User: Fold these one by one.
Assistant:
Number 1:
Amino acid sequence: MFGQLVRQVDAAGVETRFTYDALGRELTRTRAGAVWKREYGTAGRVANSTDPLGGVTRFTYDSQGRLASRTDAAGQRMEYAYTPRGDLARTQDPAGTVSMTYDAPGKGCSSCGGSAAGRPVRVDYPTFSRLFAYDGLGRTVRETDVFGPKNETRGVNYVYDRAGRLAEKREWAHDPDLTHRVTKYAYDQLGRLVRETDNLGQATNYGYDAWDNLLALTDAKGQVTRFTHDDAGRTVSETRPLGGTTRYTYNATTGLLAEKLDARGVKTAYAYDLLGRVVGVDAYAGGRTEPGRRVRLAYDQMGRLVFHTDGQTAGAFTYDALGRKLTETVDYGSFNRTNTYAWQANGQPAAFTGPDGLARTYAYDTAGRLTAMSVGTGMVTLDDFTWTAPGTMTLPGGTRRRFGYDGLLRVTNINATSPADALIQSYNYTYDDAGNIRKKDTEHGAYAYSYDKLDRLIRSDNPVLTDEAFTYDQVGNRLSSADVSGGWLYNGNNELLQAGNRAEYKYDAAGNLVEKKTPERTLLFEYDLDNHLSRVADGNNATVASYGYDFLRRRIWKDVRGVKTFYHYSDSGLVAEMDASGNVRKSYGYRPDSPWGTDPLFVRENGKNYWFLNDHLGTPQQIVAENGGVVWKAQYQVFGKAEIDGSSTLTNNLRFPGQYYDEETCLHYNWNRYYDPESGRYSQTDPIGFEGGDINLYGYCLQNSNIFMDPEGNYIVAIPIAVPIAIKVLTKAAIFTVKVIGTIIVAKTISDSLDKECDDDLCEELNRIVQLAKKDLHRFGKGNAACKIGMSLEELRSRRDAWLNLAIARAQRDARCWEGGDYGHQQAQADAWNHVGKCQALMEGR
């Protein structure tokens, strides 16, 4: 009657059917057997929506028909309020209120130099406020954070050139006129960034072709990385400063990456199905016509990865009707092990069981904050929250951890007491104006840290271990270390050749460490076709250890002089170590909201649980039994080398976030590559190249391991500061579908989406806002909306803001109109948030 769509079949052949009421409003939507239902209120707006598993989300509206509240299927409620003009003025949940203040139409604002109507001038979060000031052209000229009982301030000033391009970024604290870090930008006549000058006056230069493709990246030492591109703007070669070229070819019909030839001569060929999904990956040693490794992948009708195999190991996944992972099984060849997952009605993790059979269940408050976690018969509780961060954690047996935070949710203190209330751990942190940790007082003494003008660690005064001091060259290579006699030498590829009198190094054509020679021993390193470390030998070429990996780049076994250990992972990180027969010898647990391999909660061995006491980064400092007795403890050098206390009775190999210590090499396995804590750098280049956030592809966390971490070995992450819960949840949405990004394959979620129009006025308006946000991204040009290394700060910021607008628009539209969205909606929303995060990370790295 109304001409509505009743049946749709997408490119994958998945059918979706729709039913409507007498007024033409959608009642049900059935996709691949899963049914979503809607009920309407008296004003014709959606009052309730029911997902395929029976979860009900409820909506209320104000007198203007605007969304006033949303209560999800788990009972978590978010309330909304608006300005008279209709802008969102306030969101509120039990964790706190976020309020926004805007300037008046045509009048500008008190902090603006002219009219910037409709722009936010103040956002008040539960623990801090962010203020914005604009010039007469509506450009942001100042961002200020106000926090703490004394209303401390820190911020950034932006200065523009005559053409309106960002010329300087000036960071300050307390007084906007007293900057502590300045970054300058220069452009060519076409407005392209050609030079970026840091706070030490060191410049990175960029060169382009006539089509704006990056041709040359010249670092502050004059070392040039060169690129070539085809007519479509795709990278066809990348050459390191001293040579060594990686080449790419593309399918002439689809434009997808067909082959990659690395500097070692290893060829990797990719095969796709009709939907552009990777279904085969074959790797060939130099000159070989038969693949040395062959990977095959399969997907379900919703586009989710359900199986992968390389002939040696295999993985399989199952999902519920909402696309959430239910099981994950790894076939190790002689045995297999499975993880099981359960979910709250609103999509938060409800339970997890790994190979050890120990069930972990999770409980949340009405704000979505984790408040309890059962581990077998024990219970962990969290309370006394500061916005989203817990102030107290009580462990089974009665050990209690307490946390303090400043207004930016930076950790200011951590302490732990035994069940008898005896002090076990005490860490107190002091930050400087740049946000660096200047002092750390602990139960074993005080640490003091010094930094250069680029915020690189140059000194650590340690209470027990030997004091440390470093100098660096223009790109962050260590030139000296107080504990090593002699200088540190590098070649033009930033490969460390000599660390004073301590070690000498050699590399292959791809930049992998192949030999490390010290006065005590020589180690030789070999790599497989996927560039994973596969074998370590001594100076006589006798095997010390060998390693194996699955398709997702996870190390799943190692063999050290005949003793083989298997490793099993969940979405949170390493969860089990097993012997050659598959018996679990050690297992691990994490909070469900922790980044990969970060802030472990417990380790289980011989039927007993032991509990981690970690620092602000999540690095283990001590491990205690349920009676509060310390069974393991360590002190660390500033770049992660651990000195284990002789009283320790338990072995612990977890180190910096995402890292696992290998005794046979003294390296730390870090998912995508290996880290050497002695030199404070990686033994391989970043597998995602300059997109990892550092001009030095061997560098660790911009030489500041106090406030940055790299849990996955390929992307720098700042220690957490205040972020709305919604953003935290959305950015964790990507799991397990295969996509080729640059030079490596990554696992993430991807599926098709429905483009059906919303069927009520509010949904139509929200959908219009989404379309406008998508259109806004087009101004950057086709394929050029993503943030990339080499972009100016203004380019990064404009893209971040555009992606943020799209992410928020999608979140509001999907929640209101699509019961949270189908798999495609969820993926599109997660992709937008991921773009926001990447842009922000690149901005913070400047």
Number 2:
Amino acid sequence: MATADAPAAAMARLTTDFSDSTALSRHQQIHARLELEILDVREEVARLKGELRRDQDPARMGVIQKQIAHLMQQINAIREKAAEAEAIVKSITQDVQRLDVAKRNLTRTMQTLERWSMLKHAHRQLKELIPTKRYRDMASSLSAVVQLFEPLKPLTTISEVADVFRAAEADRRTVQEMVNTEMETFFRNDPNHPPDLRVVTEAALVVDVLGGDYRKHIIERYITLQLAEYRRIFRSTDEAGQLDNVPRRYAWFRRVLKHHDDENAALFPAGWEVTRLLVASFAEQTRVDLANVLGRGVGDVNVFLDALQATLDFEAAFARRFNIPFQDVTAGGLNSSSNTKWTISSIFDSHFGTYVDAQDKALAEMMSQYRGARSRSSLEGTLQETENAGPTILPSSTELFYFYGQTLEQCSKYTNGEPVAKLARIFAKWLKIYNDEVLLAALKREPAIRRSLEGRSSLADVKTACMVLNTAEYCANTSMQLEDRLKDKVKDELRESIGFSDERDAFTATKAQCIATMLRELETACDPAFAAILKTPWRDLENVSGRSAYIVDLVGSIKEVAECVRTRIESKKYIRNFADKAVGLVIARFTQAVIKSRPLKKIGAEQILLDVQAVKACLLDLPEPHPENSSNGYTKYVTKNTGQLETMLKVILAPDDPPEGFVQNYCLLIGDRSFTNFQKILDLKGTARADQQKLVDIFLSVTGTKDDLADTSFLTGLDMDPGNERAQHAPQSPAIQNLGTGSVLPSLLSRSSTDYSPDGSRADTPKAFGDFRRFVSTFGKRDGYM
């Protein structure tokens, strides 16, 4: 391996020493260094050869071998001395060991003789007691005989011992037959020959001595007799054995147990646990019967729950009596092959799905009352009742969650397993249905009662949207609390399967739809005012005459809708959300109307600028009745939205003579070098085509020397040809439809008031007026406005 690597190592060394062409000039130094390394290697080789010769010297090897031989001799000598010492110790202790063996044998012999004497004495006593039926004394003697049998069994090869063993075994069988007769007399309970309970109590002591199998036989016989009537009366195939008679089962057993406690419990030794075994046997028989009954079908859910509740009460009562869990009461019963723990109530778990299905049906019936026309009429009734009561929610939502809470409490009393998780899925299902078929259905418009002939919106839809929004918010919050309660009630391993996040998302979407409905109604209310803007001959105005007539209608419509929203929405954050979007909507529609009304001329632009101030004051008043109470962020948001329109109008109303001054004013207010944006201003201003070329030339000349101008501004996204995007009486305008999209009308939602930090500073600098399709200006289009 080393030989194979040598060429590679040599090449690596050459590469290191001669890394570049300049290394060739140092070849003498490199050669000298290599010579020194060669000398070092030769010296190392010579040293290693000397050590090898010294280690392989025959004289030295002979010395080492002699030392090893001497060491082996010393080891052998030590072994011999150790053997001699061991022999001496054995000779010294041999007598002691013999004495120890003799002592142990003597002790065992004395113990055996003593046990033999005791066995004969105990057997003699037992033989004498048999005719007397003194079972208490008989139990003591028999216990001694039984205990002495085992250690003396190896001596049965001796004839005398074998004779005693056979006689004692015969007497034991005699005693067992006598006890069996006494117990049978007790079990028959013949009124003509009543048993002597004292004799039965003492006979039970003898049973205890006779062994576990016989004791188990006696206990089984007693319990079988006690439950014989139960098996006859409550057969699972008879009427008395059905679910509705489960409480009767437990009542019957309590009577039997009371008789046992009063009359028989004291007859048996406490260690037999006859009472516990009686309860366990009854529970096992009941469990088998109920399994058969439930296997044929549950039937009435209320009967099922009553039977389960009676079973739980029964188990709880006996758990308290024995001061242990009920599954420990039933463990180790007479018929159990192992100590497997179980309860009677556990047999209900696999059938509890019927209860959950019943709740599903109950919810379906409940939901049918909230759907469709009945839901609409109920909603209108609620709106009428709460006309002056302020914000409220749909009563159906509180009824739904009250039902959820009651159902969960009832279910959790019986189980914390899979049925609770299944119930959670049922809850989620009906929350989704409630959202889709009740809340969203309430927002659907009815064409017959939509707008009046004046184009005004119906505030009933705004009120409905407010109530639905409040209800959706209540449902979202309450569903979170319900989720926490469910997770507290269910087993740990099932908690991850429980959640209402999808349903809360649906309620959130419904709240957004409610806001959209309010904005739609606001837009409908403002339509006549926007139509008036289009009808006004702005280019022909001769002077500014205060606020325009349409402003009164516009401000009145905005205030009417805003007042309805403020007084009916419970959460301020949704009032603010509505206000933010309303600002974007109104400014978008206003800007759209202004663009459609071009050319504006100076007086027209000045009049519209004055109108914008009135609209701005109204918009500042949206979240709260007094603008001074509005947050700094909202004020900046409104100012930003109206400010862009105001800036555009200020540029339009500026005189174009001298042209240099007009261009400088554009650069100062707009701040961009965009030729297209400049053309938009000229188009809105209505500048004659003959004058446009001169203004354009000056604009190009001035902007070419100003490096501080931007390439774009808020005018970049301004659509100069919005078209007839909203047909009269259309169900929903693009301004509303585009609220959730990336393409909106000019300035609509270009900045939310939440984009401002609490101190009023801007969080970022997005493009003004949103992302609109860019305007491509042509002289042909402008010709129509000259």
Number 3:
Amino acid sequence: MQSAKIDFISKYNNLVQFALSSSQDFPNNLCEFIAEEYEFEAAVLVKIKENSFEFLGKSDNAKKSYNRNSQLGCSGCNAVNFYSTETKFDVNPNCGFQASDVILKEGCLHISVTDKERVLLKIAKKKDFTKSEWDNILVVGEAIRNLLRLWMGKKGSLSSSVSEIVSSIGPELRTPTNSIMGFASLLGEEKLSGSQSEYLTTLKENAYDLLALLNDLIDLAKLESDKDISAFSNVNLKQFVQEIVHLIEEKIENNRIEVLTSIDDNLPESVNLNAQKVRYILLNLLTNSLRLTERGKITVSVSSSEKNHLQIRISDTGVGISSDNIKDIFNPFGVSEFYTSNNGSTTGLGLTLVKRYVDFLNGEIEVNSSVGKGTTFNLTVPVEEITEIEKQISELPKPDENNKVLVIEDDFATSKLLANYLNKWGYDPTIVNSAEQTLKIVDDEQYLAILMDIVLPDTSGLELLQKLREKKNTKRTPIIICSVEAEQQKAFLMGAVEYFLKPINYKYLVEVLTHYKLRKDSNILVVDDDVPTLNLMKEAVEQAGFKPVAQSDSTKVMDVINNIDLDLAIIDLDMPEVSGVDLIEFIKSNDQFRNLPIIIYTGKESYEADIKRVDGLFDNLLHKSSTNIEDLQNSITEMINRYEEPSTPEEIKGKKGTTKILLVEDYKHSQIIVTRLLKKNDFDSIVVVENGQEALDAAQQQHYDLILMDMQMPVMNGFEATQRIRELPDYKEAPIIALTAFAMKGDREKCLDAGATDYIPKPIDSSEFIQKVKYYTENKVPVKQ
């Protein structure tokens, strides 16, 4: 017991030290301390502003997406809407501000730190807050207030760290500086005396230096406060370097300095890097060399010391810096006194920011200098090579996706693990821990899929499964069971689509989700001039789990679908102006829709002549008088399922003028995903086998234009199968794309070494996958030996 008390005091003392130092990490440390010592699942601290919250810090288990750039708030929050100087605790189940990714019992602790500044501590726990806990939380609130006052210290504000002060006032100072420069330029157009022109030139140069200093201060403050949001982009390496060198050459007077450039011919044409940061680094290093050099030369060399690393060497023949002073070169204003020229003016913070940027990019920088001999900077920056196919992929538009997944799991550790994986895969998890919470939340929200345990605290998971299947919003939502109980047969009979025994195989789980994500993204065109019937058709599509594209005016259909990827069309025959028959002919005459399956859904009594006109252009005929909404839903699902059915080797053996693809994959949902993607993009000749031995046998029986090879399979894995297939005469140059789940560093190289032409990690990105398939089936790409 004595030991526990000492441990608590030790941790509290550390917290006090953080507060006294005004450390920016204090709010995070405070939240972690509160969560750990008082056994809360998560804690988030925010400053209360007029109509919103300003994020200050969080515990490790708090909502992953929260950071200093988060826009937070709650329209119904009493703390925001009503000012109070008291420490109060409140539990509001409808609060829009959550501390955790998991739906838990959460409460808000309102603390008035000063007369003007208030904070909110959001805390989460598994069970309801008891009366004694309420009282204890208020006591903790008083301690937090005192710690926050310590933390504020000389700052005098919750938000005013040095970095944040600079971030706030920097732009305000930049505006008048820009005005000075602007008016100085206007003044320069007037008739001035020689001395006046000289004064004006000095004024403009100093204003420019001040603006550059402000910009560097603001950038440095952003790095310090983790608010830097500059992004990586694809650049043409040679062009990128030459543009920077050209900017430096423009600043050289009387050709007194020669700038030489050497770029290794073996470097890739395009790379992925943080262009903004690297441009700043190179400009500052070159400007530094310019100011240290009275006359002579500056050399820029670009090469690659190791794979995916760019090595840049900038050397000059300037005055150099002594070994005693070189150690201060990256400190603010560390080398200003050694400058021999004002050309290419830099701020005293330039090299400081260079070092911070290099660290930010996980790079390295070294400097060597000798007095009278010059200075050399060696810079190493991580980059990624951009191949031609990757360049095409990067230019593809990103879809606007709604990937909400409901997780029903009462074990906190399991739910957190699931949430982490779902976030990593690009899904948006909502986690509940009881049947009561589940039934309440599904009435207001629709989900891509539901993951659930069958062992729950308040009811049987199988009973909940049955109730979900009876609700409108979840009737056709894919439900995936993850449980320690072996109840597969019952679960499948009650409507589950997949069953995982714990521990969960996450490699397969992501494939199941991807499968149903692709299905849900299916666009189905419904056309009927009778609006009530159109609404019923639209509802049938939605209840079947797909996206309707509804249109009552048949004259507008072709314009509406022009840029839409359709999976199915349901069309009435009897419509004014453009009849259903005419519309079907229009659609099928468009190359984009020549393979689009069509269901005719009509109430017309005499339709034989119409059917004769479009014979071979439609796939199914349903009459409104004998087809209810359930029948229509089933027909839609059956038609969409056709995209998931591969061909047999016998079916494609005699086919000519078609691209034959062999998919080697042992997991059924992965087979469905790939087959569906290929068929939707007019690749119809697809054969599926389940292991490397079957792939080798299939390749020996007939030639395939492309092989898609999973690398982890039973009997014979993909690495061995690829090597064996490469030994066959017909497959020396045939494209083989490796597919690998949970890709690790070095997997790409291992696949290429085994003989693969290219590599795609799982879960598969649909756009990237199809782009690569088209690229390798349309272009003969030599295999790397």
Number 4:
Amino acid sequence: RVSIQTTLNTISTNVLNNESSSTTPFTQNGLDVYYTRNAFPTGNMTLLGVNYYDQYPAGSPAQPVQIQNQTTLGGAPVTITSNGWSSVRSIKTYPTGSYVKNIENDSWTSSFIWYDTLGRVIGTYGKNPLGGFIQTESVLDFSGKALETYTYHSRNTSSTEVSIKDRYVYNPQHYLSKHYQQINANPEELLSEYTYNDLGQITNKKVGNSLQSIDYTYNIRGWLTGINPNDLSGLNNKLFAYKLKYNTVEGAENPNNSYTNLKVKPRYNGGIAEVDWKTAYGANEPLRRYGYVYDGANRLRAGFFQIATNPYSKEYTEVMDYDLNGNINTLKRTGASVSGTAEVMDDLTYTYNGNRLSYIKESGRGNALSGYPLGAGQGQTIGYDGNGNMTSHLDKGFTAISYNFLNLPSKITHTNTANTLQYVYAANGSKVQMIQGAEITDYLGSFQYTYNGVAVSSQILANEEGYYDFVNRRYVYQYKDHLGNIRVSYTKKTGGGTTILEENNYYAFGLKHGGYNTGDTTNNKFKYLYNRKELQSNGNLDYGWRQYMPDLGRWNGMDQLAENYLSTSPYAYVANNPVLRVDVDGRWFNQDGSIDTSGITPGFTSGKQMYQHFLGQYPEQGGGSGYYGGYNFTGKEAGSIFNYFKNGGSMSELSFDNNYVSWWTGGALGDANTAQEMIGHMMKLSTSPEDSSLGIYSPLSQGNTLLSFNGVYMSNLPYRRYIGTARRNAPFTYRGVRYYGNGRTFLKSESLINVKGLIRTGKILGPISVGVGIILDYGYGVKEYERDPNSPNAVHPRKADLNTTMGIYGLTGVGTIPSLLYFGVDSFYPGGWEGYGNDYQSIQSQNAAIIPGFITAPYGSQKF
């Protein structure tokens, strides 16, 4: 790697290291490439992908003149006149085509894009490695929404072509109202029809030509509270009903007396306390319920199953605890009741080497049929490669697991060769093919085929409500819960009505219940179940970039983005709260290391939790009035401390040792009466590249921000402040000025707490806390900026100046409220002031698109 970088640094020709299009191709890995070969590397290489722009390369399919009566845009500039205005347009700078190679062989997938005269995509054409194709054509309205989409497809050159027409209808707010689909010459099917509330949330969905009418309910915060929740007592022709409870508990607090210390309690942090559900799979299915218990880090400790006919059956229970890194230490799991007693499926103890699972020990009887396949005793050692990928798992019979350069499993070898799995991927990481014995599954966009060596045994087209089964010529619709888990799959009966094909209920960590829910054997090729991820024959769930093991509650390998976060084990699934969170593709954290806040995956810490973490459980404790002493921090003093810290000054209350700075808060220094309340803090200061990703509270300027927020708060807010006006003959003295009845309005202060130690502490530690923040900015953050402006800990000098000015201004009393507003937004709003501005603009654009003239105010919305 160093050698290659040196070569790039010393290039003397084509120093920009770019390519130009060429009419004469060079051939690499079986593909003709219409570029020059001037960019590094020019020698031996494996070509993985090629992208084209501006023009359609040789070998492209012929560009259609029109697509669904819409003129296409070409490479040659054309003058287009619209509403009296003329402009010259072409596909210059637009992507036109791409090729992606399979990693395991030299087969290629190609795709090409056609545009209308407004530069909008109206058509695509792609060829798959089997020789088949997928072609799409779209009809767009003025705003760019698709009104109709036509798809033409064949698996290979000998397959019968399939045609699909999708038609979309929108309501006056431009929300999708109806989605129709037609397969070949079959009658058009109304896949879904939506009704919304005033917030744009779906309140009702009719599926399959009104085969099912599904109601959705929300609480005042906009959180989903139920799917057909009013039908839990009697399903009323509904196939599935589901209720989410956050801050209420209706079931038993402790349904399993084996764990008297674990109690189901209401959650007030957005967590889920209970879920109820009922299905129509049987004639008189009982109400089923899970009650959840969490630890102080919001990790799931237990999922207690209850059934209306016997709430204390102890069936289908999971109980976990964790190490400090968030790895599961022990897991106890029960199954269905056998002879009146819940089967103890698993009593597992995990042993680790770092975060890697070394082996499992079964303390109970164990079994190889359900749960983790291990009998009583210690399991065998699990192997790993240098990248942290699991390379063997002998407890499950996997003797070797090999990976490609994307850390995706290419072959999983089983002691029974019939269970050996092989995978083929495109270079972009998408799965192209899976092979198990004579059975081959091809993944071709939204189409999925299973070939048994003789004929295609399964052909499936996925859609948002389920899928179309070409072999059985039927639509299969699916009920999903709040996590996207497939709960009930059903289809239309011949002659009317519905029939349930499959029911799926899950333990919290994703293992499917056994003993009472089964599936139609003609329906077993579509295995997208928990989180709507594909269940593999080895029991793992394929999320895309990693495989998840629901029997162990862990991933098979490292998170690609593991270096961007330090808060939990890179093998832990969604920070051990699978009741609330979903991993989208095996990389739960964003590229910048922040937590996914897409709405599907809520973040770790609520604003209230952050407030308590940084300010303490009772932040009003710690402040004081002049009666107990303190600093008069204005004017000359403020300027002096600003220059003092900016020029590298230090404070005696701070200790520096081995690149760490430490200080104390929560009590007055040297005061024995409050020593037990003091809290020690330590922060690492380093300019080494290895530590640049730690972020302290990235970016590091927020170290100053948070400390200044804390300091301003402690110095001033233990007073109750209100607006007052001086009355005649009743003057007030405020900040050295005596006011009489002259109409002057000012802030009045009254101490809330009259505790000597706490008040003195606030007055002393407020400026100290601000001072610590200033030191962090100028002593480390600005130096990081000078070393590397792109470092996550870099602080621009002007930002440091602004932080310091606002911190000192806040200590003056007059600037308390503005300073707290500045630091509060910078500390607790994602992305600080920049994030607030970006979010505000995004929300305003979305709202205005729905309701013209809608203005989003900083703390609410109004229509003008």
